[in-house]
Give the backbone structure.
Amino acid sequence: MNKLLVSPSPHIHTKTSTRSLMLDVVIALLPSVIVSILYYGWSAVVVLASSVVFCVLLEYLITKYLLKRPGTVGDLSAVVTGIILALNLPPTAPWWVAMIGAIVAIGVAKMTFGGLGQNVFNPAITGRVFLLISFPAIMTTWGGAKGFIGGVDAVSGATPLGIVKEGLMQGQTIDQIFAAHDFSYLQMLFVNIGGSAGEISALAVIIGFIYMLARRVIRPYITLSILLTVGVFSGIFWLVDPSQYTDPLFNLLTGGVLLGSVFMATDYVTSPMSDKGGIIFGVGIGIITMLIRYFGAYPEGMSFAILIMNSTVPLINKFCKQKKFGRA
Amino acid sequence: MKKTFSIGGVHPDDKKISAGCAIEVLPTPKTVYISMAQHLGAPAKPVVAAGDRVKTGQVIGEPSAFISAYVHSSVTGTVKSVAPYRDLAGNPVMHVEITVEPDEWAEGIDTTDTLVTEIPQDVRFIVDRIKNNGVVGLGGATFPTNVKLCPPPGKKADILILNGAECEPYLTSDYRIMLEKNGQIVVGAALMKHVLGVDRVVIGIEENKPEAIAKMKEAAASLAAGSSDYAGIEVMTLKKKYPQGGEKQLIDAVTHRQVKSMGLPIDVGAVVQNVATSLAVYEAVQKNKPLIDNTVTVTGECFPKQSNLLVRVGTPLSYIIEYLGGMPESAAKAISGGPMMGKAIANMDAATLKGTSSILFLTREQTKRNPETNCIRCGKCAEACPMGLEPFLLNKLARNNMYDELEQNAIQDCIECGCCLYSCPANIPLLDVIRIAKGEVIRIIRGRTAPKK
């Protein structure tokens, strides 16, 4: 008789693994990747490739030579970080900017803390914010890229949020700014006017969101609470003074709100465990984002908002427990 | 909207590949080994000695404490030895070894197939028959049934729930008895209903067993038409979700009442019995037949012949496997019970117990555990936990021996269903770690609450 395995129950295991979850996130990111390549052409390919390659390479080198531990690049989390970082960069950014972003994201924000699962701050956003502060000129230049689809010219200049901020500071009203720049919501939904690779198509991000929900990769609470908070917060201000405050739809479709709420705020590692905690986390991100957009020096606040709320996650986890069976 | 329990749960593949196999009577082996530890509680005290001749259904072990049970000979023959014999896990346990001869039943046992539907009115008589015929819970815990049917003074049940959920993948023994012996199960339910003095009996069956639901409904309706003793027995279709058959989960699904932490079902007015137990109660009371055989599913994709067998208690597992054509080369693990909560079998020479519901064979590929990686804090374990616990947290606390914090985070409520480990994408052995720490915490709680000497 052959020897039998003896080990404790359960004796079967789900097919879902860290790798399969990360692969699902990569698939969900594909629509945004495709739109950005079509729209920004080879420049987007270079940014994307250098960001992913450097993220994966760094994680490999760090686990092998610094930590001397088994490699973890197979779990694909570095690929996800690489893609998200690339989608946060202007397509005209040189490859070495992507490399520096990758060093900060993987080297500083992720591996220093012990790798996947141990980091406090979302690696891709940390990388992005580092670049935004270090290379403000490069990080806010959108022109010059030539896309693959005819008839679509990448417009040089600032993002809609940047244009509005600029205009308001010069004393213009929202109506005047909108009239001068011919903003169209339909255009924002499909392909935006200007912005980092991941910001340009709201629809592509929404497709990714639906895919992740269908595959049960994420739960909807964090994303929806961010969007709802941004909508309600801006709605109140816009109703009070539409000449100084942009409307809810504009705020939802521009900047990193969608990309951030779908792909970055939902990062398992840096978001709360419970649904209740997720809602608090989302509301916090929404409020901070809108405070920065309306009253801050930067036109966009999504990245900062997520990073600030990342730091509250341990506290949220401590106080938001799910209801236990048979206990009040 | 079909009912189910309110927190957590997982959906492993059904794999009921032996569902179509009718119950077949397994020929009696040449030798049986009947364990004195068939049930939860104190082992029975053997009352026979080597050389004694025993008849089928004769008492060979007596209860040695309040929570204990009678054990009967499942065969006719000569006692060869009363000695320790290795159980499923390979541990020596007191067994009575009997050399088998042709069946000769003990006095007063009705071995015919006639369905006896008249309910005896004397509660004492019913309970005594259940006790004297060694009936124990067949849903897994093998708790003596007579004890469960007599709640402590001051506690009163208002509902009896029959567990026909069979939520574990692969298992089909309960399904087969619901198809083939539904009348007996309903009579058993009526007997227990009478003992408990409840008006309502709910037979909970998961939606993936429509034939069983139909048959059980039919049996309940036809018996109810004949006598008022069968009033208030209903079949409830439950959503398919593991662990629906967990006692606390089933009560929640059926009544929306949640048993408190460290509490008992009777605290919320419920008593739960498995459908197989109900069948055993029927046989014990109406036929005066002791619990000497039970239905065992033998299954697994790698096993050549799927089957549901009626097996005499004490039959060596190796005998069953040989009868069905021997163990396949590709089988890496044999499990007594289902793949989620069953126990790995270390010793194939061990004998079946009253509570043995299945022998399941899995290949190395099916049962392989991948290496543990970092927790990615996805929260899937907490989402899966039917008790609303946070396995990721308990795992960390347990690895640091933080027992106070473990107790505060309710590790003692863990029912060891395995949902957390099953669903962890990082392959962290959550339940392995939690199970050990839970034992320690319960010891600490007991030590604190026990009366000071």
User: Anything to note?
Assistant: Chain A has a mean pLDDT of 88. The interface with chain B takes residues 1-2, 4-14, 16-18, 20-21, 72, 75, 77, 114-118, 268-269, 273-274, 321-327 of chain A (CB under 8 Å). The two ends of chain A are 52 Å apart (CA to CA).
